[in-house]
Amino acid sequence: MGSVPKIIQLVNGMVSYMYYMLKNKNMFSLHLYSVG
Fold this sequence. Notes:
Blueprint: H1 3-23, H2 25-35
């Protein structure tokens, strides 16, 4: 039972991250350009 909240927390974190990236597309594109 203890692993279920961790999975939910992980998924929630991923969704937040995806939303953040979509919200800041220009920053993300600039970052990708810098890295690669």
